Amino acid sequence: MNALNAHNAYVRADLTVEPEGEGSLSGLTFAVKDVFDVAGHTSSAGNPDWRRTHGPAKRHARAVRLLLKQGARLRGATITDELMYSLQGENHHYGTPVNPRASGRVPGGSSSGSAVAVAAGDADFALGTDTGGSVRIPASYCGVYGFRPGHGAVSAEGVIPLAPSFDTVGWMSRDAETLLRVGRILLENGIESESESESESDSGAACRLYLPSEAWELAEPGVRQALLRELASIAPGMKPESAELPEGSLEAWARTFRTIQGIEIWEQHGPWVRSEKPVFGPGIAERFQWASRLPSSDKERLYGMKRTVGRKLDEWLGSDSLLVVPTATGEAPLLRMTGEQTELQRSRTMMLTCIAGLSGLPQATVPVFSGRGNPLGLSFIAGRGRDLSLLRWVRDKLAVREGGGR
Fold first, then answer.
1. C-alpha separations of 404 from 42, 225, 234, 364, 400 in Å
2. Cα angle 83-85-87, degrees, rounded to a multiple of 5
């Protein structure tokens, strides 16, 4: 096995693209989830039948171009769950990337290979996509930093879609400074400019931290304690406030999210599934079958609920508050969980990930470790347009822990 691919993170470890300029990312390497266009490369989207029925890209995805122009070197296309439709990270066709920080446990998906490449030190950072948690969950399970930007804040041009009203281009790194450096490039050149205009010195400091009780109750007791201890270390002197989420329960939010997502997924990929009859691994075929039966007549009512949740959360957080939640319910699940057990774990996890997904707000996850030494994730969600200020806040709060400053 190629030394670069010792953890089976890559579907193509030999794919390299040299920098197209010099800039703030010079000297860094990055990997891309195998859903981003790279000129001359045919993405698999985690499924051989997708690769067979699609041709090579004519140009790089916009996010890839921006990074290359700032001096980063692309090295490798990483494994993804099939059609990005899972949170486990196990791939029936290309193998499951090996979680380097939690032996015998899943890496998380669908940006599994990207998280593993970063955690293993094969790449300084990696691009992924996050629709229902596909950057945040693998970042949590593999013990790295992850960022899901606000919806529309980073261009998805040249990226295979899943559910467009939730799809985002996210990224992962081993330190908060690199997470911010990548963010400056992708966000400042995004399709929506930030509404904020604060200087670098004020770092977008949050004055209030809200802990939604329903979200924290989803975390296992030992996990909850470890995360709260880490929060006290990250934000000493700040007094987090327990709070109730506006506008319904997380169970209802997750149900709304999953239904809209399923309808959009079938709109995007249903015709291809029907015409090509692809071979899917366990769990994926069942999800597509479920999505195919959803009535599109529910869309407008569900989109109305989505808009209401987004508006309420944005009003609540404003420009100076953060929502703090466990990224996932606990440690990465064991490999080869099946059936009802897998779906139960997935549905509970999506009750946490749907908060940012349904509202379209930015979320950063930072690595924490359990008493057994396995990775966990602690997440911070900011108001709309506060992507860079959130990244700066995380960088500044974590600088001491990482043993350095700016």
1. 40, 26, 14, 20, 6
2. 130
Q: What is the mean pLDDT of the chain?
A: 92
Which residues of the chain fall short of a pLDDT of 50?
A: 1, 192-204, 404-406
Burial tier of 359 (Cβ tally within 10 Å: 0-12, 13-18, 19+): buried
Three-state secondary-structure class, residue 238: coil
In this structure, what token pair is assigned to residue 275? 């015409």
Annotation says 33 is catalytic: yes
Whole-angstrom distance, CA of residue 394 vs CA of residue 398 = 6
Pick from 178, 137, 120, 146: which is nearest to 3 by CA? Answer: 120
184 exposed, middle or buried (CB, 10 Å; 0-12, 13-18, 19+)? middle
Scored b (16 or more CB within 10 A) or e, 241-271 reads eebebeeeebeebbbbbbbbbbbbbbbbbee
CA distance 186 to 184: 6
Q: Which residue of the set 86, 114, 134, 140 is catalytic?
A: 134
Strands (DSSP E) found in 178-337 = 208-212, 241-243, 321-326
Q: Which residue, chain included where needed, has tokens 């985690």? A: 46
Is 134 assigned a catalytic role? Answer: yes
Reduced to 3 states (helix: H, G, I; strand: E, B; else coil), residue 326 is strand
Distance between CA atoms of residues 182 and 203, nearest Å: 16
Task: Enumerate the β-bridge partners of residue 377.
Answer: 367
Give per-residue pLDDT as tens, 161-207.
Answer: 999 999 999 999 999 999 999 999 999 876 544 444 444 444 445 68
46 close to 111: Cβ distance less than 8 angstroms: no
- Cα of 399 vs its chain's centroid, Å: 22
Give the active site residue among 86, 110, 112, 114: 110
Catalytic residue check, 277: no
